[in-house]
């Protein structure tokens, strides 16, 4: 411990965390030395960043930073049971990086996904190069108490093993948003995070999100938007564009439900006009073609599916007329209108802490939400 400061309840000092903005490497070294843990092995050299001049990139409005337009989500797909093999996670991240992907989104609520993400990027030596977006879901012991949020951030910093601040920290699903957004602004000013934002996946909350976009000086939002779920077009996406807020898109593939609807159907003829060879490209190019969208976040645990997803950030994007044609190709398919009430990932299971905990509670509770939180 530093001699001049007490430990927090989680054994990590507030000042040590806040020092992360100026040098997480030094803080990590101090932790190893003073807490009696073995010093970590040297970080492996990162593989060279590929030349990807052909990638579709989008600019972060507030900073001018350019990001590849396909990122990587981790909800459920990176969650595993304790002690399970995670080689597939590392392989997905490796291919993502080699194909030019840079933005990875995670959350402490995603079971072991956050820790598995940290293990993967550290093993590949890219933990300080990847554009990492994370979340805060916390209240406190009393109004304006930031101890729960700080404890969450402390755990995240340790799991993700970075020597630099988190690139984007988001208020997850608007939880305690009135207190968390001011706290995120404070952390940004103190150098602990680079950008701040908020998220939700339910269209019922989009007007509330738009209110925050218009008044809270945010850098990013993350929103559920797909060729099926288009409600964000009404107000939220225009508000983001008007206020210089970058947009990350969660659930662009509707957690496997879009693929379930199209099944083994052939792609429509217009796909050839866009150089589209898979349904994943079809769905993702539609999302990316909205001018307010900065980065889509498809999630997968399958390295082959990962390659299909990242292929969407190459080649032409549909114009407004073609976008409407693409929607019309799907609207009459059986099950398309039922996607919002269809279980996630039809025919696929992701055994992990989140799914196991949900199963236990579902056995005990007489009521279960049709769309659980993400």
Overview of the molecule:
Residues 1-14 and 20-51 have low confidence and may be disordered. The protein has 13 helices and 9 strands. The protein has helices at residues 14-18, 20-34, 87-98, 113-124, 147-160, 177-189, 206-215, 236-242, 257-262, 279-288, 303-310, 320-331, 353-364; strands spanning 57-59, 66-68, 103-105, 131-136, 166-171, 193-200, 220-224, 246-250, 295-296. The strands form 2 sheets. The chain has a 7-stranded parallel sheet. It has a two-stranded antiparallel sheet with strand order 1-2. It is an alpha/beta fold and 374 residues long. The longest helix is centred in the N-terminal third of the chain and has 15 residues, at 20-34. Helix content is 36%, strand content 11%.
